[in-house]
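## retry 2 of 3
previous attempt timed out at serialization; input unchanged, resubmitting
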Amino acid sequence: MHDRLTTRRRPTDDDDYDYFYDDYDYFCYYYYYYYYNYYYYYYYYYYYYYCYYYYYYYYHYYYYYYYYYYYYYYYYYYYYYYYYYYCYYYYDIFLHV
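## retry succeeded, writing output
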């Protein structure tokens, strides 16, 4: 029994032609599915990294100014919430593709 995902030889007289082309269609579908998943997870990872970056950046930025500029506390808190919502929005979109 050959590997149906890797064997790509032309059919011979002894082969079942329908099986060969079904095999090829399956291979294409499998490849497309794999590519789609890679594409999806790539963007999922990208936005996860993006969210983590802003979370880390604004958390420390806000933490620093909390002690020195109390007035900016609400300002940075607002931006923190905005980016949190932005991250959650993209997380929800890409999770339900």
